[in-house]
Amino acid sequence: MGKRNWKHLVTSDRKRAMFAVAASFAAAAGALTLAPASAQAETTGDHCVYNVTRDELTCSDTPEAALAADSVGIQATSTLVRLYDDANYGTANGTFTLTVDGSYTCTAAYSPIEFNVVNLSAAGWSNRASSAHTYHSCDVKLFDASTTTGTSSTWIDNLANLNTAAGGWANRAGSFQVS
Ligand SMILES: [Ca+2]
């Protein structure tokens, strides 16, 4: 297992656009931000956790190990979204999990957008998700292109086969919104 600072995955110009949070959460995130973890060896694990609070990607060989590595030294993290390479929430070929430090619950409404993950390709996850699960009252909206542009899906809570979402969304998403 290991951690990679997200900024290492993109150029500095793009990093600014990599991830944008709603202003209200940005303030909270600032208060929660911890000192960056010391650098560790990069890994090639198929299961990656992207921690919004720390802007950090942690990969390992299982979803559980990646989550455990992400939460080292943290009292609690909240899992908001998990994307699966396979349909039916299968974990054989990889997962991408979005977390925040601390306890977080999404608002009941779809507005405002609470999180944007704008470049899945930076984590090797463009055109890859085939099922999706959300937690803590969050829902996810997928976008064809990066930077939450292009055609978008409906809001998705849990969906075992993203191809059943209107338009067909398996192996298609390049970015997503969370609310
Ligand atoms: Ca897939």
UniProtKB/TrEMBL annotation:
Signal peptide range in chain numbering: 1-41
UniProt entry keywords in alphabetical sequence: Signal
Protein name stated in the entry: C1q domain-containing protein
Species of origin: Glycomyces rhizosphaerae
